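Input chain follows. Return structure tokens only.
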Amino acid sequence: MTASDSTSAPKTALILGATSDIARAIAHRLAGDGYALQLAARDPERLAREVADIALRFDVPVSVHQFDVLAPDGGVALLDALPVLPDIAVSAVGLLGDQQENQQNPAAAERVMRTNYLGPAAVFAALANRFEARGSGVLVGISSVAGDRGRASNYVYGSAKAGFTAFLSGLRQRLARRGVQVLTVKPGFVRTRMTDSLDLPGVLTAAPETVARAVSKAIRRRRDVIHVLPVWRAVMLGIRLIPEPLFKRLGPRNTGKN
């Protein structure tokens, strides 16, 4: 499915989980930077309006692809269906889930873990091998400050993001001399459809467009790890420094996807 044709063969960005608000904002930002787009989602039909919007705004080629991060292979089969190997791949896949349900329902907890860690890691592992063989590429993983320390209110989600953060760190060290950039993005709270019902603190909450600008800038500057809002760096440092005996006594908070 092509929104427009180009004679100059622009660089290409693959967006995994392309129906999310953060993914949409990143897609628009990268299209504005001149990248052709490969939008991948479990329900590609939901992207029809997005393709038309991008075509009208940016006049770049756009293709839409079936991608299910919960497939047995983590969605790796997608890569063989792509018309070209992308220059940039962004994992915006995510599922917050409900902590209370996750505590009682192992299947629900597994779904959160597979969505936020196992599936994205499988696809990035396969892409890393392809990028390494080519000698170039950028992998962008949307992780979370929730993975910096387990908290009672969202530790299933947080543990999955912690795993993804560690995976990206190891991948970055492995590929550091192979021409491949690995960028870890920690957005903090983001005002999206997923968090719309939550009472989020304004000073700690970013818009999806703010995340997209930060990602685009970090790619150009070849950064390794970014906090979209710098205040989160200090916040999470303070949380990590709380002694465990005191941390155990602190009551859980109703935190959203961050």
